[in-house]
Structure formats: C-alpha cells, structure tokens
Amino acid sequence: MKLHVTNDTAEWYKSEFDLQTPARLRYYVRYGFGGHIPGFSLGVRVDTPNEMYTSYQVDGLTFFIEAKDAWYFEEKDLFVKLNKAKNEPEFSYE
Questions:
Q1: Residue 35: is its pLDDT beyond 90?
Q2: What is the DSSP string of 51-62?
Q3: Burial of 89 (0-12, 13-18, 19+ CB in 10 A)
Q4: What angle is formed at CA 62 by the lines to CA 43 and CA 86, rounded to 5 degrees?
Q5: Residue of 1, 8, 18, 37 with fewest CB within 10 Å of its CB?
Q6: Whether the predicted pLDDT of 33 surpasses 90
Q7: What is the pLDDT of residue 38?
C-alpha cells in the first residue's frame, strides 16, 4: 500500500488546519459514508504516529496511516488530490 498526496492538496491542508510546518496528519478509518468499503470513510487529523504503516512527505507535511487502519487499504494505494471545483481533497483507491 502506498500513499500519495499532491502539493496543492498539502497547501489546502496547511490553510484549512492553519498548520505550521513541519506537521503530521493522520488518515484514519471511521464509521461513515463515502469510503470505498460501505459503512466506512476516512477522517484526517493532526496526530503523532504510534505504529506507522505508511507515510508520504510533501511540502513540510507528513501524511500517515497507522498499522491498525491498514486493513482498510489492503491491496490498494491511496491517492489524495485536490478537487479544484469543490475546493476539497478527493480520495481515490487504485
């Protein structure tokens, strides 16, 4: 499993979360609508890694996924791109 985050998406997170670099953002699995597995979706929060499964660094930010959430991404790579029309991150699993 690989994680990819575009530069413009990193800039969006910096602005929305009012982040100073360096900073770490965790993608985590939660109950909800819109994920690639029915009943689950992704959340994001500023956090400190405990048992990092994978990470991606861009523009002073480290995006990461914890080992306990690895099941959600099995055999998939996560691509996070900025949807400019909606001005929000968009997730794709490939």
A1: no
A2: SEEEEEEETTEE
A3: buried
A4: 50
A5: 18
A6: no
A7: 86
Q: pTM for the full model?
A: 0.93
HSE of 72 in the Cβ direction (CA atoms, 13 Å)?
A: 25
- Amino acid at position 37, single letter: I
Instruction: Please provide the size of the chain in residues.
Output: 94
Instruction: Encode the chain in three state secondary structure.
Output: CCEEECHHHHHHHHHHCCCCCCEEEEEEEEECCCCCCCCEEEEEEECCCCCEEEEEEECCEEEEEEHHHHHHHCCCCEEEEEECCCCEEEEEEC
pLDDT at 23 over 90: yes
Using CB atoms within 10 A of its CB, is residue 78 exposed (0-12), middle (13-18) or buried (19+)?
Answer: buried
How much is the average pLDDT of 82-92?
A: 96
Q: What are phi and psi of 75, to 5 degrees?
A: 65, 20
